[in-house]
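Hi R.,

Here's the chain you asked about this morning:
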Amino acid sequence: MVRFRMTAIPVILILGCHGPVRIDYEAVVGQAAAAGRDTYREIPLRRFALSARGSLERRLYERVEQAVELANRFIDSEDNHHFPPGRRFRASEDGKLTVESDAGDGFRMRLYVTCGMTFLSQFDFSAQEGIDGFSVGAVRDVYRRPVDVSIANTLFFTLEGKWRSAEMLAALLLHETSHTLQVRGQGQVSYWLEYYLRGAVLAEGGEEWNELEKVPYRVETEFWRWWAKREG
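And the predicted structure, written out as tokens:
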């Protein structure tokens, strides 16, 4: 989630979409971006999933699959007390990321790279939930060259400009999906109004002291506790 969204919106309009995360794109990603790829879009997981085996895009989708497997193992574990039971993630062979539900109210998740999250990443936020998934920010090139934002974004990179591991991706997926379930249960307009009220008016901000952040942060904490036991 994002701190102080209401005050950030006019600043975005004035200053434009600039984030703090910088990498040497060609050195880190291992390829130059094609002209015109520096645009905001839905992350094309289908393209990644159907790419040639061994390609960067295919390896990134395989990391998503690994994250989904880790998230599901955690959901089924005794360490999970707050992520809703009866729900599981699924990453299909053709690139569809879904949240399945025993109650029949599952949905397809869509992940976007947006201008707003690119700007807000400078306030140490990687993602922001929506009704059908979540959005992330773009990662910029240190030499101001164009980048492929479907790869260079805070889904796959940390705010320090490092590749995000499968377990870090799983934690992000669990946290933001916990929010998405809140949005779907409450309604998007009602949810945002309450979040704005709590974050700005009641000065609860956008971290774990915000009432709407308590469950997502608890889910993430429980996941990392489960991960530590697994690795130990």
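DSSP finds eight helices and eight strands in the chain.

Let me know if you need anything else.
M.
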